[in-house]
Amino acid sequence: MVRTAFLTLLLLASLGFAGRIQLNGAGATFPYPLYAKYFSVYYKLTGVRVNYQSIGSGGGVRQLFAQTIHFGASDAPLSDEKMAEFEKKFQTPVVHVPTALGAVAVIYNLPGVKEPLKVSGPLLAEIFLGQVRMWNDPKIQAENPGLRLPPLPVTVVHRSDGSGTTYIFTEYLSKVSPTWRERVGFGKSVAWPTGLGGKGNEGVAGLVRQTPGAIGYAELIYALQNKIPYAAVKNRAGKYVLPSLASVKAAAEIEDFPKDTRVSLTDTPAPEGYPISSLTWILVHQDLGKNRAYKNRAQAEAMAKLLWWIIHDGQEYNEPLHYARLPEVAVKVTEENLRGLRYNGEPLLR
């Protein structure tokens, strides 16, 4: 760790010239509060300005493919097919750089209900399929004995834009409900059977907050910032678990972390793990010179050094904003991936 901290300091020191450099990124709303903090701190440290547009994971991937940004951000790893499409076009692979762990909270608006709602995955699927339409339905009551549920209609709220948060949530539902998997499936965008659409995590949170009887999904920080109640979700071990730093960390206890970092944490077998947890990633070309958004090597070096800082010193900002730090095994794998970044074939980190 001493060597890593020393290297980080050297990288930052080498950016003393960087006051004129700006990097542009776009994508996931899931980590936006954390990225806003990262980039503010990093600008004060180095003078490198990072402009990040929180437009949804789908938009971030599209803009990276169009070479209009230096980096994309997504809560959904690229599929094998999309990876191949990128590599064919740019003659260099996409590198997934994990930055944090987060939880997709099941948020709701039930006037008069003070205790956290409990829901299992199959019940959630039925609600979002439109099969459970009233809050006092016996199926909801059975998982919440003693809780006085109001006779309100259920109003489902989902994302209207291409979203990594949607990917995480629908991937989870597809794992726990064969019916959901067959009828809807999972992805950044799906054909929702019912409900209202909101743009971004903030849009979903806003709709749930103003609609009695609403239920939706959003990254935990949006629930906390908006003071919206969120449910305890039954995990594979049979425990109802609330999203928290501890339960997200438990879900990420993986011994064999894949080299490409594309790993799913949903429906975790961990007894204390929250079942709708996920990594979130920054996406860059392995050879940044293949992306015409980079005008020179200085920009590419600034990007590589920013990513190195995020997975090391930047991690101290995760937990105050209710994102979990990367596990050490993920940091080690990502260090090797970052050392492989190039600009027109030449290494960026030495």
Features:
D-Maltodextrin-Binding Protein, domain 2; 37% helix; alpha/beta; 2 domains; single chain; three-stranded mixed beta sheet; 13 helices; eight-stranded mixed beta sheet; 350 residues
Question: Mind explaining what this structure looks like?
Answer:
By secondary structure, the protein is α/β, with parallel strands linked by helices. The chain is built from 13 helices and 13 strands. The strands form three sheets. The chain has an eight-stranded mixed beta sheet. A three-stranded mixed beta sheet has the order 5-9-10. Helix 5 (121-128) crosses helix 7 and helix 12 (297-311) runs antiparallel to helix 13 (328-339). The radius of gyration is 21 Å and the shape is elongated. 50% of the residues are buried. Residues 13-18 have low confidence and may be disordered.
